[in-house]
Design goal:
heterodimer, A: mainly alpha, 7 helices, about 65% helix, globular, B: mainly alpha
């Protein structure tokens, strides 16, 4: 899901930085307004948590493993705007300090994984678990569905971003300058892997983590903490 | 029937290799090399120009020249070239090299015929556009990844995060990044210890369903611990004089050599983009 440098052209990268700028501004204003002084470290903890989730190898049938992004999970735990900041911080650290995900593609990666994924995942979770008691199984199912749909929408958008490159950037003879695959190849490739494998990993991890938290620490999923209401 | 699952071993390997890479990077940042001596703020600005150059160039020959400059800078910065090549080629460029293979053929990239391969009576045509497009794509990826890694292994990570201030990013973001960076190591240690404990008690032979429950339990336990840790951290911040307005200490010093370096990079940037646009 992390788009590396060199896959997207300069204008595409620029557009996504421009799109993310107001989102980051709104996110920081909302979080600053709603975050109690005592909760300041929770943003950094949320960011580190998003970073570390991606390092958990999840076993899947066939003896292999995959990993979750955890975007919907972080949004359910922190609220979508705080999750946007936390995941952005994790993505920037990954790209800048550990070479995972492109530096020029930070805007696009943040749009897919720090904005679309947590927001889609969170609002699907909210819609399905609407009025459900705190110990209801509906919350577990809602979290799984949110995780699955959130990551697939993000993968679909990443596929479109890849697929637009040969249309936007090519030489007169038709040579691609960036990602060489058009929409017909890039979208099914991105969606196929996520709908069949990684989406399920995301759904299982999100649902099971919420299930365990409901059992062991339901206060962390309570109905109205300041951050989650926004 | 229980299937052998290596998720515990793989999680341990990824946590350990992450920590090992960080130790190596920290060792390189402490060396007395060329890039280590440049003011981090000007270094970030100059590397931003390298990233922009890499993304704008349309000629693979100029990307090769840029790659040569990157390797030269790595040498002058006392980086072990073998380690650097291994660190930069694995994983993203090798992955890019593999995924670009179908784009060589005229099924995906129609155009003039460059080579024709006969495999099991099937005729596969490599198009000129496909071949040169793939070459440009892989070169662009390796150049960008190499510069990103070079920046991170020649600049102290904490200093690198502090340079965000020159781009006008609010201090609360810079502070969050700094704190997050510290927490990552703490969390990785927790993950490593937990997996070692599981491995020593139940081994690695677990069916995948049980494994998924173990992973989810680990993540939820990590969040539970972290959430409560947040309150302790806030208490520690207050005891050190935190007044809800984060202050980042600025201890950067710029020398004339740093400005000379930036001047060289700007000139290089202008010339290489001029050649790229003029020749194409």
């Amino acid at each position: 899901m992390h788009i590396p440098d060199g896959y997207l052209g300069p204008a595409t990268c620029g557009v996504f930085y421009a799109v993310m700028l107001p989102i980051w501004t709104v996110a920081s204003k909302i979080v600053k307004k709603t975050l109690k002084a005592k909760q300041v470290p929770i943003l950094a903890i949320g960011a580190a948590f998003s970073f570390v989730i991606m390092m958990f190898n999840v076993p899947i049938p066939g003896g292999t493993t995959g990993h979750a992004v955890g975007g919907a999970l972080v949004a359910i735990l922190l609220g979508p705007w705080a999750a946007c900041i936390a995941i952005t911080v994790a993505l920037v650290i990954q790209a800048l300090l550990f070479g995972d995900g492109g530096i020029t593609a930070i805007g696009a990666n943040c749009f897919n994984m720090a904005f679309v994924l947590p927001f889609v995942g969170y609002y699907i979770y909210r819609a399905i678990s609407y009025n459900a008691p705190i110990d209801s199984n509906r919350r577990v199912i809602a979290a799984g569905v949110g995780g699955y749909i959130g990551i697939n929408v993000a993968a679909f958008l990443a596929g479109i971003e890849f697929g637009l490159q040969p249309l936007l950037y090519h030489t007169a003879s038709g040579q691609a300058l960036y990602c060489p695959y058009g929409l017909k190849a890039a979208v099914p490739a991105m969606l196929g892997g996520h709908m069949l494998v990684f989406g399920w990993v995301e759904a299982i991890v999100t649902a099971l983590v919420i299930k365990y938290l409901l059992k062991t620490a339901p206060e962390l999923l309570g109905p109205s903490p300041s951050l989650r209401n926004k | 029937m229980k299937k052998k699952s290596n998720f515990i071993r793989r999680s341990l390997i990824s946590a350990l290799s992450f920590l090992k890479d960080s130790v190596f990077a920290e060792e390189y940042t402490s060396r007395n090399g060329f890039l280590q001596g440049i003011d981090p703020r000007l270094k970030v600005a100059s590397f931003a120009l390298f990233f922009i150059t890499a993304i704008f160039l349309k000629r693979a020959e100029l990307l090769i020249l840029l790659y040569g400059l990157c390797l030269l800078l790595a040498l002058f910065s006392k980086i072990n070239l073998g380690w650097f090549l291994k660190r930069t080629w694995l994983f993203i460029p090798v992955f890019s090299l593999l995924i670009v293979i179908p784009a060589l053929f005229d099924i995906f990239t129609p155009g003039e015929t460059l080579f024709t391969l006969n495999i099991l009576r099937a005729k596969l045509v490599i198009s000129r556009q496909g071949f040169f497009g793939a070459r440009l794509f892989v070169m662009r990826v390796i150049v960008s990844v190499s510069f990103a890694v070079l920046l991170s292994i020649t600049t102290k990570h904490f200093a690198l995060l502090k340079t965000f201030r020159i781009f006008g990013i609010p201090q609360v973001f810079v502070m969050t990044m700094g704190m997050c960076y510290r927490y990552i190591y703490l969390f990785l240690k927790v993950v490593e210890d937990t997996y070692l404990a599981i491995k020593s008690r139940v081994g690695t032979r677990l069916d995948y369903k049980k494994g998924q429950h173990i992973v989810a339990w680990n993540i939820s336990a990590l969040w539970n611990r972290s959430y409560h840790l947040g309150e302790d951290v806030y208490g520690a911040m207050l005891s050190r004089g935190y007044t809800a307005e984060p202050v980042i200490l600025d201890d950067f010093k710029t020398k004339s050599r740093d400005w000379l370096w930036l001047f060289f990079v700007v000139i290089f940037f202008v010339i290489i983009l001029y050649i790229d646009r003029r020749v194409l």
